[in-house]
């Protein structure tokens, strides 16, 4: 319990620190003015792209679960994915929504390890897709990125992370990891269920077809569910960013926001918006309004899952 309280305190402090910086950095009267002038047609388009993004993610999750012998309809996966997003609104991290998805999918046939591995791979492939897109568009805009040390550093971290993933793939045989665990004596510490779960995750690494499919859908989600949705938010505020500049940082922001150092990336995401888009001349008020508006609209959309959540809770 003390460990959990300590971790929460650290995350809370990080969020508070970033939010304090933002409060003094932004002209909030300008934010109010921007919010009053939102173009509603773009908000409708945002919801359309958001729904498409969730549908894409649901289909990718379905492929991963199906590979493990879990067979549910796409509509079921869509509803559970949306419900998981809804739950995340009230949890200090994304784990709450993921735990819900794991339980709901795995409970029918008691395939909890298989269900957990599908959700983890859904997260990992989604993150990897965003990382690949970040590197591609940063390289395409390298002359500009070169002048910003923090963007260069993030790209270097991403490249190292991808390299680490390649190393894992090259040593994907479970026997290697069993030997490694045995050498360090972890086999006496780790519970059997963890070893089974690890084996389920490692199982994906040797299957090129499912990896190619899910990575392709992760890229599609990055373009539709991440870049298109957020670009529409900027358009609703009357800010038309040069596309290459926008694409060279939006995926970096997604990467930074995925680092679990704050409560639901609150503060960190907003800081990244203000800082990264600021490199391209976007006013801090516009950037913070886009970040907050996107967060609020996504939360409102997720409330469509409330009846589903209440039904499954019975």
Write structural notes for this entry:
By secondary structure, this protein is an all-alpha fold. The protein has one domain (2-11, 40-313). The protein is built from 15 helices and no strands. Helix 6 packs across helix 8 (149-170), helix 11 crosses helix 12 and helix 13 packs across helix 14 (284-302). The longest helix has 29 residues, at 112-140. The radius of gyration is 20 Å and the shape is globular. Residues 189-194 have low confidence and may be disordered.
Which key features would you list for this structure?
314 residues; mainly alpha; 15 helices; globular
Write the topology of this structure.
Layout: H1 2-25, H2 28-36, H3 40-67, H4 74-88, H5 95-106, H6 112-140, H7 142-145, H8 149-170, H9 174-183, H10 192-205, H11 208-236, H12 243-257, H13 268-278, H14 284-302, H15 306-313
Concise overview:
The protein has 314 residues and is mostly helical. The chain contains 15 helices and no strands. The chain is 79% helix and 0% strand.
Structural class by sheet pairing and helices: mainly alpha
Apparent shape: globular
Number of helices: 15
Summarize the main sheet: none
Number of strands: 0
What's the average pLDDT? 86
Low-pLDDT runs of 5+ residues are: 189-194
Distance from N terminus to C terminus (CA atoms, Å) equals: 28 Å
């Amino acid at each position: 319990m003390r460990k959990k309280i300590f971790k929460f305190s650290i995350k809370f402090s990080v969020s508070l620190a970033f939010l304090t910086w933002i409060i003094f950095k932004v002209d909030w009267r300008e934010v109010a003015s921007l919010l009053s002038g939102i173009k509603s047609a773009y908000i409708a388009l945002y919801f359309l792209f958001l729904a498409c993004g969730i549908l894409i993610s649901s289909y990718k999750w379905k492929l991963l679960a199906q590979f493990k012998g879990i067979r549910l309809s796409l509509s079921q996966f869509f509803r559970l994915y949306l419900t998981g997003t809804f739950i995340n609104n009230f949890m200090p991290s994304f784990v709450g929504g993921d735990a819900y998805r794991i339980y709901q999918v795995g409970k029918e046939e008691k395939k909890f390890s298989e269900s957990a591995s599908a959700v983890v791979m859904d997260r990992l492939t989604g993150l990897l897709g965003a990382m690949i897109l970040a590197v591609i568009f940063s390289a395409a805009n390298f002359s500009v990125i070169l002048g910003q040390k923090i963007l260069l550093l993030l790209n270097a971290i991403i490249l190292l992370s991808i390299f680490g993933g390649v190393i894992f793939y090259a040593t994907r045989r479970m026997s290697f990891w069993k030997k490694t665990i045995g050498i360090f004596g972890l086999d006496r510490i780790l519970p059997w269920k963890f070893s089974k779960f690890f084996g389920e995750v490692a199982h994906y690494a040797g299957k090129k077809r499912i990896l190619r499919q899910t990575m392709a859908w992760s890229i599609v989600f990055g373009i539709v569910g991440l870049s298109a949705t957020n670009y529409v938010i900027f358009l609703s505020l009357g800010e038309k960013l040069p596309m290459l500049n926008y694409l060279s940082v939006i995926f970096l922001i997604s990467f930074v926001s995925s680092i679990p150092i704050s409560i639901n990336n609150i503060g960190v995401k907003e800081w990244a918006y203000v800082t990264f888009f600021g490199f391209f001349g976007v006013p801090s008020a516009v950037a913070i309004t886009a970040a907050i508006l996107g967060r609020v609209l996504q939360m409102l959309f997720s409330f469509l899952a409330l009846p589903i959540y209440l039904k499954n809770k019975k």
